[in-house]
Description:
Layout: H1 5-15, H2 19-31, H3 35-56, H4 70-80, H5 87-104, H6 120-132, H7 136-156, H8 161-164, H9 166-184, H10 189-201, H11 219-238, H12 247-260, H13 277-287
Helix pairs in contact: 2-3, 2-7, 3-5, 3-7, 4-5, 5-6, 5-11, 6-9, 6-11, 7-9, 9-10, 9-11, 10-11, 10-12
Amino acid sequence: MFRTVAELVELADSQKIPVSEVMILQEMDVKNKSREMVFSDMENNLQVMENAIEESLKGVQSVTGLTGGDAVLIQKYMKEKTPLSGNLLMDAVSKAMGTNEVNAAMGMICATPTAGSAGCVPGTLFAVKNQLHPTREQMVRYLFTAGAFGFVVANNAFISGAAGGCQAEVGSASAMAAAAIVEMAGGTPQQSADAFAMTLKNMLGLVCDPVAGLVEVPCVKRNAGGASLAIVSADMALAGVKSRIPCDEVIGAMYRIGKTMPSALRETGEGGLAATPTGRELREKIFGSPVMKE
């Protein structure tokens, strides 16, 4: 059983197994299930993610009209032009946004770790898949690695925007994705931890300010940013770049920042972008009632 990233890395290194295997063994122990059952459960999550991405690339639209169709636009852009940031990164952006567009359109997604941050992990997975060509087992292990790091965050800080701002949601999700990318690309457990830390460090202080209180704006595009950062951080870690602040300390910093964040910036829809003139107008348009002016 591990509770910190340091313990997770130590277990993986001492037993000479990947982070994903540590998480599989823990799930078997905690849930009293066989390896086959634990693996099957996670494979079901993978299938839900894949279905969501496929659905999004057909084009979806939310009931409010605030979000939808952007994943398709990016795929079209990639076919017609050469993206400045490269095809792999933009593919991840498209699929991360697409997953959240499906969420906003009331489709089925897999919360990783929340619905509002559900795009980062599958978006990056199905983008790097085209370059790394993993087996189905390796794709499932990708989710176990992400889950191992998410487990630490959930038990030492928070993963909900209401508790700690969007740094706790998209911040955690993008960091989980970075750690998983590293393992799939052949990196070490410590490199996964460095990638996680570097990603979360760049998300510290990110507020949760959903326009009209809906998981649409700016949530969908924040998943795009999170997926991008995950890939960049994974590359840095694989290149040998280390986080000067240990992973567990970064998680601790995120927790303390979230505790001091005003309630208006923690999913209430009362501050940040939600409180802009346009944000207020959109809320009134959707719900049909005037919003109190500050």
